[in-house]
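Protein of interest.
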Amino acid sequence: MRILSRFIGGPGLRLGLVVLSAGLAGLAAVPVSAQQAQGHGDTVIRVPSPVLTLDWEALFEATRWGKRIRADLASESRALSDENNRIADDLIAEEKALTERRATMDPKAFRAEANAFDERATGIRNAQKAKAQALSRRFEEDRQAFLEAVTPMLDDILTKRGAVVVLDRRVIIRGLAEADVTDDLARLVDERVGDGPPPAETPAPGTSAGTEGAAAPGTAAPETPAAPATQGN
């Protein structure tokens, strides 16, 4: 039988990153100003710029909210992987037992039992695959909620810096580090929202109807949604 080869196979999910960049127009030159560093005798030269930069992925990874989303994903992915491995082991043992009984079974009875096993294994695989897809969708929804919640906070930084636009840092060929506000926004997000809203209640692996089986073990983490392009007023 080739039941297990069909059962265990299946595509994984990969973490990816899609970035949207913002446009830039009508920016006026701003003179350089000197500021005294707090607690130090050195003079720090700051360049007030109408253009700021932000690394969305670094922001997500640096904040408590983003870290909590990642940790939840990792925990649930491990639980699903463990469940898939356990179910796969059970099905392998069941198939082996059926194969060993074949010599003593009527051929028609064996074919009927083998077909029933194959059909059940396929249903189990589809159910487990649906679990992985649901986990992927929830991660995307949580991350998108993060991006939508923190984007308005950029207005405070734009006002404080006297800037008019924020660009994704990864579309910038060269620029001053002073223009990057990733760390500033990460601190602001931690101050205002901390770990973020409580995660939505989701069934533990193995509790959904029709999921007594394995999908492709080794399911990878889900895709990352696009970061929004951000502009000032």
The chain has one domain: 3-22+49-193. The domain at 3-22+49-193 is CATH 3.30.910.20 (Protein Binding, DinI Protein; Chain A). Strands lie at 33-36, 43-46, 51-54, 165-168.
